[in-house]
Amino acid sequence: MMFGKGTITALLLCSILNSSSQHADAFTPFSSSSSTTTSSTTTFGRTLNRHFATVEEEKTSQKANVVKPPPEIRGEDAPEAFEQKVYKTYGRYPLTLISGKGCTVTSSENKTYLDFVSGIATCALGHANDQLEKAVSDQMKTLHHVSNLYYTPNQAQLASWLVENSVADKVFFCNSGAEANEGAIKLARKHANNRGITDPIIITAINSFHGRTLAALSATAQPKYHKGFTYGGAMVPGFEYIPYNDVEALKAKVEEMNETPEELKSQGRKRGVAAIMLEALQGEGGIVPGTKEFFSTARGLCDESGALLLCDEVQVGMGRSGTLWGYEQLDIAPDVFTSAKALGGGVPIGAMMARGEAATVFSPGDHASTYGGNPLACSAGVAVAKYIAEHNLLQNVMDRGEQLSAGLEAIASKYPNVLGEVRGWGLLKGVVVKDDAGCTAGELVGDAMKEGLLLVPAGTSVVRFVPPLIVNEEQIEDALDMFEKAVAKRAIGDA
Fold first, then answer.
1. Residue 280's closest CA among 268, 288, 272?
2. Torsion of Cα atoms, 154 then 155 then 156 then 160, to 10°
């Protein structure tokens, strides 16, 4: 039912009159006394003004209190706030971190930990690095974001460094590894479309991990991550999986996918391999390095069929392997490779890099990112790049990586009932927790935390060591001592 302004006013007046009549000193509108009428009229006016004033005050109060300031949350109160306010998409350890410096972090209980997680292979320069801090602080004082509608020197500087230190010709900036991989997937599909392929196939490896966005998750060949996100039981179509490092399986899959089924032919469609997408080293899949034979085969198959070779360098890239890029360990040149994590030293940034024909696929409007390549993130990337170059960080990665491997192998040989193979490159190392060890990798990580060492699982059966790339010899020794104490307690418990 619709009311005019006059009707609404009348209803409001009636409401006020009704409210006022409930009071002992309320006016009597139909009194025969003139004085009473005058008094009543005055009372009515005051009542009316009071009611309208109250309405206006409430409106003003509501406007003034729409936005509340953030509450003060102390370190010891953070877990409860998380429980009440933060979506439970992570399984967190019972530890609240407050500050960090170099390779150590400090908890809300003022306990110091040796950090061999580094934000999951992200804080390459450790915590509170002076050069990174200065670069980001200085940039915030000038220009931190303007979008990609304009040119900015920082983005040009970081892109130039990436191109000059890799096989890439062009760089696309985004904000994360998943976004970088999404960009690579889109590029591969468009490249295939340009070759007349209507049903492009991207081949990935079992136990891979390429991100949490829908297409990147579809590329991730781990069914446990797909559960609940399918449509009609399927993820995003166009992905096929083969065992990692299995040369014959890769050859067979490429041959199969380059044949178009008759059903598709009858519809004027063409199936073909758009790309082979692989991690140079599988991180979440258990710290499994690629083999040169497998990647050489992938490179050859792509060359023969016109497909693109995509390398996911999100975790292993930016020096963690001992070379700047993981593909350098495998003696191949990908057409496209992606980076994130350590690229900004902990400041969110991602990049997709392409060479040759792949660097010409995208045109204006084909792909974009609001925040991608913003001055603030790129200033962090440039600071990390400078530090790597000026401090010969790759040599430290190789030296400390060898020290870490030797120490882990010694512990594994001492406790063969708990630990198995040690594997990985540089400062991306994993040690297998045996099936009959009496604990999972996650539980052993919890044990190490009690000793003052932060580690991270890679699947259910591998403990991962990913310290900052600046870690020194003494810190490696300290970490090995702490880890051995945790392993020894498990071994005694089993006995």
1. 288
2. 100
